[in-house]
Amino acid sequence: xxxxxxxxxxxxxxxxxxxxxxxxxxxxxxxxxxxxxxxxxxxxxxxxxxxxxxxxxxxxxxxxxxxxxxxxxxxxxxxxxxxxxxxxxxxxxxxxxxxxxxxxxx
Length: 106
Fold this sequence. Notes:
This protein is mainly alpha-helical and about 110 residues long.
């Protein structure tokens, strides 16, 4: 009887921990999307600034330079972050070497 009560307590604590982790994961997902949204806004603003300066020099339309600048300002840093994450995930623990000691006689 006592073991069952203790098991129920452990299950309740585990369920509370699962709910807390689920809540935190949802909050982090929202934060991630907010950061991505603000990065997009900054890329658009930066692209507009670049277009305002470069469009007359390149004799191209403001919109074309703005689109290219915004894409470059969003994709290039994002690509660096993506590649860095790929490198981190690619590096696991070093492989285990299975080498046998060699016989000194031969």
